[in-house]
Design goal:
7-stranded mixed β-sheet, binds ligand T4K, about 40% helix
Length: about 400
């Protein structure tokens, strides 16, 4: 364990880890089960287009979530595009800016304007009071994001949506396996969208799913994800290709068998981080409700540099130099990314909490790739970086100034 700042890799010491530790290293599940499913698939010579593995995967998920329909998709971004189109969302749709950019892009890609709404600083989730103020005659819907797997204020958002006759979709990319008031995420709003990207705690390589209790909507989504085909040679909607392949479903079915194990590991890691970072001044953890089901996949801390003496950005650099690939999810907020930054140059004025959070959040490695030994080391390094925060900031500040002078002189 390093005990003084001179040993930090960023100041010339050796990195604490030889291999990079990632925030979202994929969880694989039982390899033999996956390979035997793939072998059967190859023997069947059925690789895509609503094959038996996709059907089985959809049924398993519907049962697990207690929802009428689950439609497997190629990824969550296309799923968001399809569901918002199937619901007739156009004009303006209100979304948080504090999310992965795909939430906004899924709308913009279709010529629908994402209107960015601020979040509650305590929950990082859409603030219903702000949201109500953003509604205009052009608003047709809301996309709430269950960020970090923590459920939105579902009832408040539903009440606003119903009162203004708006569609309500949840981007549940982070919330597979989570519940809200005892009911699984997947059952709320008009529909909810999961991501099974490789970096999610449960993955299908690439993939996603739409869950809904609306029969008509499910039917429409199934048509739209298959070019609008309602049988051979009969196209009845504009559609796209949103299908999940069989090999992805094989991964999904295999992952479902280990889902409880993945969650138990995440939960234990979350506990170890909480223990290891308890009492570090200026660090605040994103916490999960122990009375609900959570997947604990994101280990997120807010860094208050007025207390730590080291900025979030510098702390990320310190950790990355040690091969701890901490991330700034979701810096800088969608409104600061193109094309939104150019379209809405003043959006930040209405997004003070998003702006503040984007400079403070820090995501740390989780999943089956890390355990007690790694987490103890990560926590010790963070403790050291915070204890010597002002000193590290001063030293690196001098190095940066020196480099700037040398660059100018060169
Ligand atoms: N809505 C929300 C709220 C989302 O968070 C996302 C996706 C979506 C919608 C859209 O879902 P999809 O259309 O993707 O299904 C990653 C993922 O690409 C993205 O799916 C995810 N959210 C987002 C939070 O994270 P990056 O740019 O951070 O990924 P990248 O390539 O830097 O990888 C992250 C870490 O994982 C790296 O440190 C390396 C490691 N890694 C990655 C891959 C792909 C591995 O170890 N193995 C791998 O195979 O976006």
């Amino acid at each position: 364990m390093k005990s003084n700042s001179a040993e930090l890799a960023i100041l010339g010491g050796l990195p604490a880890f030889k291999e990079k530790l990632h925030v979202g290293r994929p969880n694989i599940g039982q390899k033999e089960r996956l390979l035997s499913r793939i072998e059967e698939m190859l023997d069947r010579v059925w690789l895509s287009n609503n094959g038996p593995l996709v059907q089985e995967f959809e049924q398993e998920m519907a049962q697990m979530l207690g929802v009428k329909h689950v439609v497997a998709m190629c990824n969550a971004t296309i799923a968001l595009e399809i569901v918002t189109r199937a619901l007739g969302m156009d004009g303006e749709v209100i979304v948080p800016s504090f999310t992965f950019v795909a939430t906004a892009h899924s709308l913009q890609w279709q010529g629908v304007t994402p209107v960015f709404c601020d979040v509650n600083p305590d929950t990082h989730l859409l603030d219903p009071a702000c949201l109500e103020k953003m509604i205009t005659p052009r608003t047709t819907g809301i996309i709430g994001v269950h960020l970090w797997g923590r459920p939105c204020e579902v009832e408040a958002l539903q009440e606003i949506a119903s009162r203004h006759n708006l569609k309500l979709v949840f981007d549940a990319a982070h919330a597979f396996g989570c519940s809200h008031q005892g009911q699984m995420i997947g059952n709320f709003g008009n529909a909810e969208v999961f991501s099974f990207h490789a970096t999610k705690f449960f993955n299908t390589f690439e993939g996603g799913a739409i869950a809904t209790n609306d029969d008509e909507l499910a039917k429409k989504i199934r048509l739209m994800k298959n070019f609008g085909f309602a049988g051979y040679d009969n196209v009845i909607y504009v559609g796209t290709n949103g299908k999940m392949t069989e090999v992805c479903a094989a991964m999904g079915l295999t992952g479902l068998e280990s889902l409880d194990k993945f969650i138990a590991i995440n939960r234990e890691n979350y506990r170890l981080y909480a223990e290891g970072l308890a009492g570090v001044p200026g660090l605040k953890a994103v916490r999960y409700n122990e009375n609900e089901k959570s997947n604990y996949q994101y280990i997120v801390y807010e860094v208050d540099d007025s207390v730590t003496g080291i900025s979030r950005d510098l702390l990320v650099e310190v950790l990355q130099a040690e091969n701890i690939m901490a991330r700034r999810y979701f810096y800088p907020g969608c409104h600061q990314m193109e094309p939104y930054r150019s379209y809405f140059p003043h959006a930040h004025l209405l997004l003070p909490e998003t702006e503040r959070l984007a400079t403070r959040v820090l995501s740390l490695p989780n999943g089956t790739a890390v355990g007690k030994a790694e987490i103890d080391t990560i926590c010790a390094l963070i403790r050291l970086a915070v204890a010597k925060g002002a000193e590290i900031t001063g030293t690196l500040g001098k190095v940066v100034s020196l480099c700037a002078i040398r660059t100018r002189e060169a």
